[in-house]
Amino acid sequence: MRAWVLAAAVAATVGSAGLAFAQGNVVTERRAGFREMGGHMEAIAAVVQSRGDQRQIAARVDQMLPFYQSLPNRVPAASLTPPLPQGTQDGQTRALAAIEANRADFGTRNQNMIAALGALKTAAEAGNVTPDLLRTTGGTCGACHQQYRAR
Ligand code: HEC
Questions:
Q1: How far apart, in Å, do the first and last CA atoms of the chain sit?
Q2: Which of 25, 50, 54, 139 is exposed most, by the fewest CB atoms within 10 A?
Q3: In the chain, which stretches have pLDDT less than 70?
């Protein structure tokens, strides 16, 4: 009997630690992914500014798309704030619980992002990316941040 209770307690502890760890990874990987997106956008802006070869932009868009295609799966309710502490330190997040309450709208804003990246890629393949088009693309990032990312 005692051994059974002990075994159950150990299993419960391991179980919850495992969950906390998995949850931490969701947030860490999500934030690292977004930082990569920011890096891609900066590099793309540099290509446009220096009038570089815009095929580089198309290649970067190809690297960006899988992240947004997977984004709806990277925001489980338990990885949002609240319940997680809000902030930019390790283990904190700025992804708002409003995402959970507005899944359809979050998905629409994410689809808008995927469409905007598609348009950016098409323009890049023709060498037609302008600063204006980049601002529009960046505005699509901001349209989601405004609703679903804490400041
Ligand atoms: C559909 C919603 C959505 C779209 C579209 C979106 N973001 Fe975000 N972004 C978020 C959310 C939510 C967070 C907060 C993530 C967290 O703290 O866990 C975030 C966080 C970030 C961060 C901070 C990462 C960190 O260090 O914590 C950067 C940088 C970022 N996004 C860049 C971008 C760029 C660049 C684009 C457009 C190319 C973009 N995002 C498009 C929702 C979005």
A1: 52
A2: 50
A3: 1-24
> The tokens 């540099």 sit on which residue?
46
The pairs formed by 105-108 with CB atoms below 8 angstroms and a separation of 24 or more are 105/147, 106/72, 106/75, 106/144, 106/147, 106/148, 107/72
Contacting residues for 127 by C-beta, under 8 A, at least 6 apart:
54
Sign of the C-alpha dihedral computed for residues 111, 116, 117 and 121 taken in this order: positive
Query: What pLDDT shows up at residue 24?
Result: 58
Contacts of 147 (CB under 8 A, 6+ apart): 96, 98, 102, 105, 106, 109
**Ligand 1 binding residues, C-beta < 6 A:** 27, 30-31, 34-35, 37-38, 41, 71, 88, 93-95, 106, 109-110, 113, 141, 144-145, 148-149
pLDDT of residue 9: 44
User: Rounded CA gap, 97 and 76, in Å?
Assistant: 9
pLDDT of residue 11: 43
Closest CA relative to residue 69, chosen from 101, 4, 36, 117: 117
